[in-house]
Amino acid sequence: MSKFLQIHRSDNVAVCLQxxxxxxxxxxxxxxEVELKEDVPAGHKVAVRDIAxxxxxxxxxxxxxxxxxxxxxxxxxHTHDIKTNLEGILEYKYEPDxxxxxxxxSRMNTRKGTFKGFVRENGKVGIRNEIxxxxxxxxxxxxxxxxxxxxxxxxxGSVDEVVAFTHNYxxxxxxxxxxxxxxxxxxxxxxxxxxxVLVLGLGCENSNIDVLMPYIGKYDEKRVKFLVCQKSDxxxxxxxxxxxxxxxxxxxxxRSEVSLSKLIIGLKCGGSDGFSGITAxxxxxxxxxxxxEYGGTSILTEVPEMFGAETILMNRCKDESTFNDTVNMINGxxxxxxxxGEPIYENPxxxxxxxxxxxxEDKSLGCTQKSGDYPVMNxxxxxxxxxxxxxNLLCAPGNDLCAATALASAGAQIVLFTTGRGTPFAxxxxxxxxxxxxxxxxxxxxxxxxxxxxxxxxRTFEELTDELFDKIVRTASGEKLKSELAGFHDMAIWKRxxxx
Length: 500
Description:
Helices cover about 30% and strands about 20% of the residues. The protein folds into three domains: about 5-85, Archaeosine Trna-guanine Transglycosylase, Chain: A, domain 4 (Roll), CATH 2.30.130; about 130-250, Rossmann fold (3-Layer(aba) Sandwich); about 260-485. The model has no long low-confidence stretch (mean pLDDT about 95). It is globular and about 75 Å long. Helix 2 packs across helix 5 (about 235-250) and helix 3 (about 175-190) crosses helix 4. The strands form six sheets. The protein has a seven-stranded parallel sheet with strand order 19-20-18-17-21-22-23, sandwiched between helices. A four-stranded antiparallel sheet has the order 1-2-5-8, with no helix packed on it. It has a four-stranded parallel sheet with strand order 13-12-14-15, with helices on both faces. It has helices at about 100-105, 140-150, 175-190, 210-215, 235-250, 280-295, 310-315, 320-340, 350-355, 360-365, 400-410, 440-445, 460-475, 480-485, and strands at about 5, 15, 25, 35, 45, 55-60, 60-65, 75, 80-85, 115-120, 125, 130-135, 160-165, 195-200, 225-230, 255-260, 265-270, 295-300, 375-380, 390-395, 415-420, 430-435, 450. With about 500 residues, it is α/β, with parallel strands linked by helices.
């Protein structure tokens, strides 16, 4: 294993692939020898050229900020001597490589393949056959959890399990904040990974069942049941009876061969480190491209973690209208920060910094690699369900639980989650943890499903792309992930408004 990596030939930094000590030497591709002037942790950056105060720090071939002092060759570069270049709301110009976009579009939907999924009456395809309990309001969370616990003893046939997705909202909300909660709940009620859904209401909440009905739209009465607890003499008994009915119907469902064009994957990262943009994220980008080549769909979110790399996505937009939608999403999110009186670029997190990520540009240039190289075909608002194949952008925050839930509500049947530091959480759909380094994969083997850190050990992207894609197909066909085996299920709604 090499001790360092200069990612792009124009970079004036290299990333240390292991802990390095003062006096250690690295030899660049042009045979220039660099002696470290101080200790540098794994995943962190070292200057490979002298950098003047105010000069840009270059990584991935792009500026990730500027030096705040003169930095001599061999120095550690991190938060103490670099500052972001980002500021305010910007104006953008659409500058696509039209020939490249058309060439990539010509390769979309050219591969053929299948997985075994559950085809629903509306043509959507699920990769799980679960019974979901969706509370309309946080007041009935404990009832939902108790019902799920008892109903799991009744599971049979092809039903995987009964899951209660608790949350804190559904009442005391106003305006768009309340609308978004209703939209997310309706999206989940209609999700194909659920073979049956019990919508559990209290009765007096703002987002009660009667109010939710127009958001839910047309539904299968055999597979979606409703219970208002205030109208029931015994909500546990009534709830279990409804769950028995749902289990009875869903238990007869069978998997069948389905085109991979029906697969929708969500792209997310969290607990990133200095290796995320070198291993896990570009690997997932290759998976995104491959899914698109099969005619499927990928969804990239975490808008604040596009800041600093947004022009790369903008210039990959299929047309100027999609470009304008991307600009509005980016600047609209910046405006959201400003209206709350918060700094736009309060990122990366302490964990990111400890792992070697220094500025938001540094984080974003690594993060957006999950999108691969194919054109941006569509931009979605929070709570919107995708109906466009190919790469989609989704407006949602970087928060892991909020963003992953948003991906599920947008239609993703599975979320690919890259991480350098590890996390046990899972969203409403299977959440595959892909580590950026072998250390965390070994330490947290109960969390990590796939180790992209093998790239640092000499494996090729081509080998791991094939292996990871095969695992995704097996997962879509029923193979359980680590978080599923542990019984973990989470959801979180993006809270944006006033609480009454």
